[in-house]
Structures are given as structure tokens and as C-alpha cells.
Amino acid sequence: MAAVPGIHHVTAIAGDPQANVDFYVGLLGLRLVKRTVNFEDPGTYHLYFGDHAGRPGTILTFFPWPGAPRGRHGVGQATSTAFAVPAGSIAFWTDRLAAAGVSFGEPVTRFDEGVLRLEDPDGLRLELVGRAVGMPDEPWDHGDVPAEHAIRGLAGVTIAERDAAATEALLVSALGFRRVGRAGMLTRLEAAGREPGAVVDLIEERDGTPGRIAVGTVHHVAFRARSDAEQQAWRTELLGAGLAVSPVRDRNYFRSIYFREPGGVLFEIATDLPGFAIDEPPAELGGALMLPPWLEPRRTELEAVLPPLSTRPGWRAA
After folding, report:
1. Architecture of the structural domain at 7-305
2. Distance CA 57, CA 49 (A)
3. Torsion sign (Cα): 216, 218, 219, 224
4. For residue 267, what are the β-bridge partners?
5. What predicted TM-score, i.e. pTM, was given to this entire model?
6. CA atoms of 179 and 187, how far apart (whole Å)
7. How many CA atoms lie within 13 A of 66 on its CB side?
8. What gap in Å lies between CA 19 and CA 177, rounded to an integer?
9. What CA–CA distance (Å, rounded) separates 169 from 134?
10. CB atoms near residue 295 (< 10 Å)
11. Long-range contacts made by residues 314-317, C-beta under 8 angstroms, separation at least 24?
12. Domain limits of the chain?
């Protein structure tokens, strides 16, 4: 089988939805490409942030649960989500974060790339990675982040495991990643083609505390399938490897299957199509609450329980 092209999206859990939009749109300059609901819990928003079209490999999504407790970062969890920025833009971002009152770590070099570490308002761990190759040339440039410094998409994720070898074996043998580097206890895997979201870093913490999924943590990592046929082939492959894989689930903007890797992280394989422009014009993405056909009859009920949300935020510094 062909290798997966990389990450389709990462989904995390937030607290207040307005603070979430203010940070990712107002400060980081991403586009809110879809405002919908959690299909399993439709009284909760599902917010998608990405590039101008929400292309696979650029998307970070959130389930905002106001008032929910904070989670705990630990093993059996994706502990950090990285965005790619142009290689020379780390200094711009240190100045921007400092001006906004957002704390961040000293820039470091990892695998010959500059890395700036920070957290969002809910404590979700993020990185801005200065990457010279494998980035699209069409960032979202309608915010106040200059296009030459704008986020280009996902760089990848870091996953913490007690036994990183078992997770690496799955990613390599089943999904087609390849090992491209090692630094201490960190192993870098890369999907073919170096498209956005091509990197998975595995860190082994044999005595690490298990993570707890709640506010400020990653819920799951989704990899790409270019077509329904390719997704079905992956499902057959994973079932043959002895994994419990969900049936295909319709997420309206893509179709998904889910399974847990050996360390317990929830993985998804999502189709590239149909994409986010199936229910609103590309120029208007994220501007209104969009519901799938099976929830449209409940619109009045859902709008009454969802908190108000401005989709034209400014960043409110602490």
C-alpha cells in the first residue's frame, strides 16, 4: 500500500470558545474555516482553524467545553502540536508573542530547525517550527500577520509513549512513515512527500505519568486518505494487523475511521474530500454556524444552548 501523505488534522479540547477563537484567529492569524458542532455532543461547538481553504495538513480543531477541568499531559498522548512557519520567521513570532503578553520558551534548534514553544490559553502545548521545505505558498493572509511570516500549516505532532518502539512499528509498517532522525529519546518519523503535517516525533518516557484527556490536551490525531477507496484499504490493512477499527463515520466535510495505536493514542484516518466548501462559499468559510443535514431540524434548539461567538475577534492580552 502507498504511505499516508501525513496528518489531516489534530483535534484538541478547549475551554471558553471565544478565547479559543481570539487566540487562534486574532493572535496566530489562522482562519476559522468552519463553525459547526460536535456531532456526538451537538450542544458543543466544533471549531476548525486552518489556511485559507482549510486544506488537509493545515487544520487544528477544537471541542470547547466551558467550565470543564484541565487535562494532564503525559504518556499515551499527543503532547505537543507544531505549526510550520517560514524558516526566517521565528524572530517575528517572538516579538509578536511578547507584545501580546504570551509567555514562550527560548527558541531552540531541533533537527536543524528553529523551534519556539508556547501554550494557548487552555495550556495546550504548541510549537512554531521554522521550516524551509514542504510548505504551501498560500497562507491565510487576511488577518494582521504578514503573509511572509504567516503559519503555513501543521508541522507535525509529538507523541509521548512508555514504549515508543511499538508505536513506531505501527506508523512505519502500517502507515508508511520512515525514521529520519534521532536525538536522545526523541525519534523523528516522516511521511512521504514532506507535505504539511508530515512529521511525527516520538518521545519515550518509560516512567512517565499517563496523560488525562480534558481541556488543554489533544483528543486525537487524524491522518490523511486521499480517497474513500484508499481509506477502505487502510481499514482492511489495520483490521488485518489485529487492531479494532471503527466503521466509516460521516463527518460531513470528510469521512473517518478511528483506532487506538499500541500506546493508547486515538488515531483517525480522514478523507481529503469533500472539504469545507460543500455548505458555504469559500469566501464565507467560518462565518455562520453550519449544521449537517441530520442536525438541521434542531437548529433553533442548538443555537439556544451554544454560547455567543464572535468570528471577528481581536486578541485580548492577559
Report:
1. Roll (3.10)
2. 11
3. positive
4. 221, 259
5. 0.95
6. 7
7. 12
8. 35
9. 24
10. 16
11. 314/22, 314/26, 315/22, 315/23, 315/26, 315/27, 315/100, 316/19, 316/22, 316/26, 317/100, 317/101, 317/102
12. 7-305
Per-residue pLDDT of the chain (318 residues; tens, 9 = 90+): 678 999 999 999 999 999 999 999 999 999 999 999 999 999 999 999 999 999 999 999 999 999 999 999 999 999 999 999 999 999 999 999 999 999 999 999 999 999 999 999 999 999 999 987 656 667 777 778 999 999 999 999 999 999 999 999 999 999 999 999 998 889 999 998 767 889 999 999 999 999 999 999 999 999 999 999 999 999 999 999 999 999 999 999 999 999 999 999 999 999 999 999 999 999 999 999 999 999 999 999 999 999 999 977 665 443
**Residue 188 near residue 178, CB atoms below 8 Å:** no
**If you compute the radius of gyration of the chain from its CA atoms, what whole number of angstroms results?**
18
Rounded-to-integer distance, Cα 143 and Cα 109, Å: 28
DSSP state of 23: I
Instruction: Give the C-alpha separation, 186 to 204, whole Å.
Output: 7
- CA torsion, points 172, 176, 177, 178, in degrees to nearest 10? 70
How far does Cα 316 stand from its chain's mean position? 23
Return the percent helix, strand and coil in the chain, to nearest 5.
20, 35, 45
The answer for residues whose C-beta is within 8 angstroms of residue 27's C-beta and 6 or more apart is 96, 97, 100, 102, 315
| Residue where the block lists cell 469566501 | 283
| DSSP symbol at 207 | T
